[in-house]
Amino acid sequence: MRMILETRRLILRELCPNDFHEVCKLLQDNEVMYAYEGAFNDTEVREWLDRQIKRYAEDKVGLWGAVLKENGELIGQCGITMQSYREQTVPEIGYLLRKNFWHKGYATEAARSCADYASHILGIKRIYSIIRDNNLPSQGVAKRIGMTPGDTIVKHYRGIDMPHIVFSMTLGE
């Protein structure tokens, strides 16, 4: 498990197959997964985890495990993924935390660190967060790290049309 970033309270590291049960705590919680229209089953969790591991190999980025420094507990995921947006592929900061770690500043801390990593390590000039329109807490994180809304799109997922707001910011200025 390769460490990617370190913040004041967190370590962001690559996920591995052994993280399956910890990732289930996140992705199998209906409240956490409301923006995805509900919790994932075991197969969907395995596919999600496999997709992150594939991203690390192919894109050199992905959603990384967010681990508390104080005790090594995996509390969620935050990272950079390559996403389709208006017929292009853009780097997106994504974040998802277990419910008992909401409203403690962890998502903002991790997302800000990912933006710095995107700018200083990867040389990315513009970063995005494509957030479901009903996901106000995630929109708040995007705003707190300096992103602004600039577009809306509809993603089709799990048989549902889901409006999303496209947040972005220029890096390195």
From TrEMBL:
Protein name: N-acetyltransferase domain-containing protein
SUPFAM superfamilies hit by this protein: Acyl-CoA N-acyltransferases (Nat)
Domain of life: Bacteria
Leader sequence residues: none
Record GO terms (molecular function): acyltransferase activity, transferring groups other than amino-acyl groups
UniProt domain N-acetyltransferase: residue ranges: 10-172
Pfam families: Acetyltransf_3 (PF13302)
InterPro entries: Acyl_CoA_acyltransferase, GNAT_dom, N-acetyltransferase
